[in-house]
Design brief:
Rossmann fold; binds magnesium ion; OB fold (Dihydrolipoamide Acetyltransferase, E2P); seven-stranded parallel beta sheet; 23 helices; binds adenosine-5'-diphosphate; nine-stranded mixed beta sheet; alpha/beta
Length: about 675
C-alpha cells in the first residue's frame, strides 16, 4: 500500500481547515508533506545564559520554571499566561499569548529550553511568546517554510506522523549508483532531513535528496527528448528562403540569414530539427521563423506557430496573413477565444490539410487538434511554455521539426539541462538603423514633466506605453492600472485617447484594446506587464514604467524593447522612489546597458537565482530542494548518471519507484 499518495487529511490532527492551509503551501498528499523540507534547524542544545544573550537576536536559554502560570483574560480572544523562569542567575518573566495548550503543559520546577529574543532591564529579563521545549527534549528542531496560521510545530508533528505512516521508504537507486556517487539511503536521507539525530547528518541527507530530485528531472527530460533520435520524417527538398526574403519589406541581417540557413540545413539532414533561436528583443526572430515556416509549407507540410498570449498570437497571425497575402499560403488563428463554430471549422480544415500555417496559443496543444501533415512546430518566447507543453505539441503529427525562439538568456549550465541537445543559433545583431533607446531614471517628482513629454510625442503623431504595477496582485499601496488610467484620461491627458490593458481582462477585450493601439486609434496605452512579450507597434516611442524598482531588470529590458521599433527616436523612462543603493544601482544598469544578455547577467548576479527561477521562467517543474544554479556539480553527476541508466535500461523497467516519481514531477507542470 502506498500511503504517500493519500490525501493530507488522512494524517492524524489534519482536518479540513488545516488541510486547506497545507494546500496553500502546495501540499496535498502525504508525499508532498514529506517533501516539504525544513528551511533551517534550531539546535535546542545550543544554549546561552541571559547575561550573555545579545539584544534583538533569538537565543536558546536553559531555565527552570519557578512560579506557576497565571492566567489573565485581557479581552475576548486575548488571554495572557505569565510565569517566571530562572537560568540560575537571572529571573526571566515569560508571557505567552493565547496558547492554552502550552500553558497547561508547563510544570513548576521542571527544566525547559526557551527560544526567542530576550529583553533585559537592570533588574530582570523578559521574553514574549518564546518557543518552549522540555529540556530533556533538547534536540535539533526543523524549521519549515509556512504560512501565518500554520505553526512550524504543527508541521513538524504532521511530518512525524507522515513518516511513521509511510514506513520504510523504498530505495530508488541501485547499490552501484549509491556507492559511485557516495549517497546515503533514501530512507535515511528523508528521516534525517526532517529530524536529524545529529547535525552532521543534514548535509549527506540534503545531498541525497538533491541528487534524487535532479536525477528525476534529468530522466524525465531525457525521456521527453527520446523522439529526438528518430530520423527525419519531413526532409526538406528545396530551400525557399530567397523567395520568402523577397516578400519582406527589409533585407534580413547577416545573423537572421545565418539562423535561417542553420534551420534549413537541419531540416535537410537525416535528423529532425531541434533548434533554439536566441536573440534579444527586436533582433527579428519573427522573420527567421517566417522563412523556415515558408520553406516547410512550400515543401508540402503544415506548420504551427505557438505563442504564449492571445495578443501575441493574434499579432503574429495578422502579420503573417499580410506577409503571405500575395502567396498561396493559407493562414488561420486558433486561440481560446475563437468561437466554437469557427474552431470546429478550423480543426476540420487543419485535419484535411486545407490550412498551411496555424497560429495559436495553448489551444493548439489540445487533444482534439489534429493535423494532416505537421512538419514544423515553432514556439515563440519559449520560456513561457512548460517543457511538457512543448513536448505535447511535438507529439502531434509524425514527429515534426522543432524550433523555439527565446529572448531570455539562460546560463549555459542550465541551457544544457532545459534545452538538452537543442542546437542554438544566436541572433547577435540588431537590424540596421536601430537607434539606442534613451533611458532615464527619475523620481515621481518628475511626473508633470513626463506627462508633458508624452503629450508632445503624441502631438507629433507618435504613441506611448505606460506600464504600472500589477492589477492582478491587488496590492493596495499601488494605484491600480485602472484608477491610474482613469485619472490620466480626466486630467493630464484630456482630449487624448487613453487605453487600458490588464491581465484580468478577457482575451477578446485585450485583443480589442491592443488592436486599437496597433492601429494608432489609442494614443496612450496604460497597462500592466501584459505588453511585455513580443507586441510590435513601431509607432510607439515612449515607454514609461512606474515603480520600476519592482520589476526584474530582464523584465524591464523586455518592456523597453516595445519601443525603438520604428524610425523615430525612442525613450524609456523609469520612475522609482526607492532610495536604496542597490535599487538605484540596478536601474542605472538599465540606463547604461542596452544588451539583454549583459542585463540578465547582472540581474542574476545581483538578485540571485531564486528570483530568476521564482518567476518560473524556465518552464520546468518546481524543485523542492535542489537549486539549479547552486548545485551544478550534482546536476552534472545526475546528467551522467541518467544517461547511463537510460543506456542500459531505456524504459527504466528496473526502477519502478523512480518512474513513478518522474510521472509525478512532470504531471504538475500544467501552467
Ligand atoms: P523579436 O526578435 O523581438 O521577436 P521582431 O521579430 O518582432 O523581433 O522584429 C522587431 C521589428 O524589427 C519588427 O518590426 C520587424 O519587422 C523588424 N525587423 C526585423 N528584421 C529586420 C531587418 N532585417 N531589417 C529591418 N527591420 C527588421
Ligand atoms: Mg518576438
Amino acid at each position: 500500500m502506498n500511503y504517500g499518495e493519500y490525501d493530507i487529511r488522512y494524517l492524524k490532527g489534519v482536518g479540513e481547515k488545516t488541510a486547506r492551509l497545507y494546500n496553500k503551501l502546495g501540499i496535498f498528499t502525504v508525499d508532498d508533506l514529506i517533501r516539504h523540507y525544513p528551511r533551517k534547524y534550531l539546535d535546542y542544545g545550543n544554549t546561552v545564559s541571559v547575561k550573555d544573550a545579545p539584544p534583538d537576536t533569538p537565543v536558546f536559554i536553559k531555565a527552570t520554571m519557578i512560579t506557576p502560570v497565571k492566567e489573565s483574560m485581557i479581552r475576548k480572544g486575548l488571554t495572557l499566561y505569565k510565569c517566571n523562569f530562572s537560568d540560575g542567575e537571572t529571573v526571566i518573566r515569560v508571557t505567552i499569548f493565547n496558547n492554552k495548550y502550552l500553558a497547561k503543559a508547563l510544570r513548576t520546577f521542571d527544566d525547559y529550553i526557551l527560544y526567542g529574543k530576550v529583553e533585559k532591564t537592570f533588574t530582570s529579563a523578559s521574553m514574549s511568546s518564546p518557543q518552549i521545549e522540555r529540556a530533556d527534549k533538547a534536540e535539533v528542531h526543523p524549521v519549515y517554510p509556512t504560512t501565518e496560521k500554520l505553526s512550524v510545530k504543527a508541521i513538524s508533528n504532521s511530518v512525524r506522523n507522515a513518516l511513521a505512516l509511510v514506513g520504510k521508504i523504498p530505495e530508488t537507486l541501485s547499490d552501484d549508483i549509491l556507492k559511485k556517487y557516495d549517497l546515503v539511503s533514501l530512507d535515511f536521507a528523508t528521516r534525517q532531513i526532517h529530524f536529524p539525530t545529529d547535525e552532521k547528518n543534514v548535509e549527506p541527507a540534503r545531498h541525497r535528496l538533491i541528487f534524487d530530485e535532479l536525477l528525476t528531472l534529468q530522466l524525465g527530460l531525457l525521456k521527453l527528448k527520446e523522439k529526438d533520435v528518430k530520423g527525419n520524417s519531413c526532409k526538406i527538398k528545396k530551400d525557399f528562403t530567397n523567395e520568402f526574403y523577397s516578400l519582406l519589406p527589409f533585407t534580413p541581417t547577416g545573423a537572421q540569414q545565418r539562423a535561417v540557413a542553420d534551420c534549413i540545413e537541419d531540416m535537410q539532414s537525416d535528423r529532425m530539427m531541434n533548434r533554439l533561436i536566441q536573440g534579444d528583443v527586436g533582433s527579428g526572430k519573427t522573420a527567421v521563423a517566417g522563412a523556415v515556416i515558408y520553406t516547410v509549407i512550400k515543401n508540402g507540410a503544415q506548420a504551427a506557430l505557438m505563442a504564449p498570449t492571445e495578443i501575441l498570437a493574434t499579432q503574429h497571425f495578422e502579420s503573417f496573413k499580410k506577409l503571405f497575402a500575395s502567396t498561396d499560403v493559407r493562414v488561420a488563428l486558433l486561440t481560446g477565444s475563437v468561437k466554437a463554430g469557427e474552431k470546429k471549422e478550423i480543426k476540420r480544415a487543419l485535419c484535411n490539410g486545407e490550412i498551411d500555417l496555424i497560429v495559436g496559443t495553448h489551444a493548439l496543444i489540445q487533444n482534439d487538434v489534429e493535423f494532416e501533415n505537421l512538419g514544423l512546430v515553432c514556439t515563440d518566447e519559449q520560456h513561457r511554455f512548460g517543457v511538457q507543453q512543448r513536448a505535447n505539441l511535438a507529439m502531434k503529427g509524425d514527429n515534426p521539426h522543432l524550433m523555439v525562439m527565446s529572448a531570455t538568456p539562460i546560463p549555459r549550465t542550465l541551457g544544457l539541462i532545459i534545452y538538452g541537445d537543442l542546437d542554438i543559433s544566436l541572433l547577435d545583431e540588431l537590424p540596421p538603423g536601430r537607434q539606442e533607446i534613451r533611458t532615464d531614471v527619475v523620481t515621481s517628482a518628475y511626473h508633470k514633466r513626463i506627462y508633458k513629454f508624452i503629450r508632445d510625442a503624441v502631438d507629433r503623431g507618435e504613441q506611448a506605453y505606460i506600464v504600472c504595477s500589477l492589477v492582478d496582485e491587488g496590492e493596495s499601496d499601488l494605484i491600480s492600472a485602472k484608477e491610474y488610467a482613469d485619472n490620466l484620461a480626466k486630467n493630464e491627458f484630456v482630449g487624448y485617447s487613453v487605453g487600458l490593458l490588464h491581465g484580468k481582462m478577457k482575451p477578446a477585450e485585450k485583443d480589442k484594446v491592443m488592436q486599437s493601439f496597433a492601429e494608432g486609434e489609442t494614443q496612450i496605452l496604460v497597462s500592466t506587464t501584459v505588453v511585455e512579450v513580443g507586441v510590435d507597434v513601431p509607432n510607439a516611442t515612449v515607454m514609461l514604467i512606474e515603480n520600476a524598482d519592482r520589476f526584474g531588470l530582464s523584465q524591464l529590458h523586455q518592456l523597453r524593447g516595445r519601443v525603438g521599433r520604428g524610425k523615430n527616436k525612442s525613450y524609456c523612462i523609469l520612475v522609482s522612489d526607492n532610495k536604496s543603493d542597490s535599487s538605484r544601482e540596478r536601474l542605472q544598469v538599465m540606463k547604461h546597458t542596452s544588451n539583454g544578455f549583459d542585463i540578465a547577467d547582472y540581474d542574476l548576479k545581483s538578485r540571485g537565482p531564486g528570483d530568476f527561477f521564482g518567476k518560473r521562467q524556465h518552464g520546468l517543474p518546481d524543485l523542492k530542494i535542489a537549486d539549479m544554479l547552486e548545485d551544478t556539480e550534482t546536476l552534472r553527476q545526475c546528467r551522467e548518471c541518467a544517461l547511463k541508466m537510460l543506456e542500459s535500461d531505456p524504459r527504466l523497467d528496473g526502477y519502478p519507484e523512480l518512474c513513478e516519481r518522474i510521472n509525478n514531477m512532470f504531471r504538475k507542470t500544467d501552467y
